[in-house]
Design a protein that fits this description.
This protein has 189 residues and is of the alpha+beta class. The chain has a domain at 7-135: Aminopeptidase, CATH 3.40.630. It is built from five helices and eight strands; from the N terminus they run ββαααβββαβαββ. The chain has helices spanning 25-34, 36-39, 53-68, 117-132, 147-155; strands at residues 7-10, 13-18, 73-79, 85-95, 101-108, 137-142, 159-170, 173-183. It has an eight-stranded mixed sheet, sandwiched between helices. A hairpin with a 2-residue loop joins β7 and β8. The longest helix has 16 residues, at 53-68. The model is unreliable at 8-13 (pLDDT under 50).
Length: 189
């Protein structure tokens, strides 16, 4: 098992990333529930049981298996000063061999959006991706209308690479996405 990223300075505080823990379910479910209207325009449709303890347990088991199999690495993001959950991010679709790449995905709770938490956490995960995992490339995609997400990616050094039609099914509809990536030699961690 690889090590995981720690803490990074953000604005007036710090963000910290950690693998999800079963005991943090209620905090995770509450933040997701309170931010549902904010998140659903940008995410796949939530199943009916999305916020239940059982669903969270299944999610953690799947993520632990992906971690063991070197297929994905998921983290929750916390305010370092308060230990309050602010969001989550992960490296998924990890490919080894000649590719050495993964896809970055992330979400932030509405009360914490646009406060620098995800920029700090993304930098930590990029350090992990390049330093610990030895990846050459990390890609990301977002809806063309998601200006804050595009801004985050550009702020941490991703390059806009293209446009993918019908790329992901978001909120029940196949949606176009803009594609970004950062290469190992471009990362200024």
């Amino acid at each position: 098992m690889q090590g995981c990223p720690g803490g990074a300075r953000r604005g007036g505080g710090w963000s910290r990333t950690r693998p999800p823990l079963r005991r943090r379910w209620r905090e995770w479910a509450d933040l997701r529930a309170d931010s549902r209207a904010f998140l659903t325009p940008w995410e796949p449709t939530w199943p009916a049981d999305a916020l239940t303890r059982a669903a969270f347990g299944r999610r953690l088991r799947r993520q632990a298996q992906e971690w063991r199999d070197d297929q994905g690495y998921s983290f929750l993001v916390y305010d370092r000063a308060t230990d309050r959950l602010v969001g989550g991010l992960g490296l998924t679709n990890l490919r080894r061999g000649v590719a050495q790449m993964a896809t970055l995905g992330y979400w932030v709770g509405q009360p914490y959006a646009r406060n620098g938490y995800m920029a700090g956490a993304t930098r930590l995960v990029l350090d992990f991706a390049v330093g610990q995992l030895g990846l050459h490339r990390v890609g990301a995609a977002c809806l063309p209308t998601n200006a804050p997400s595009r801004g985050l990616l550009e702020k941490v050094g991703f390059t806009h690479e293209g446009y993918a039609r019908g790329y992901l099914r978001i909120d029940g509809v196949w949606r176009d996405h803009v594609l970004y990536a950062i290469l190992r030699e471009e990362w200024q961690g």
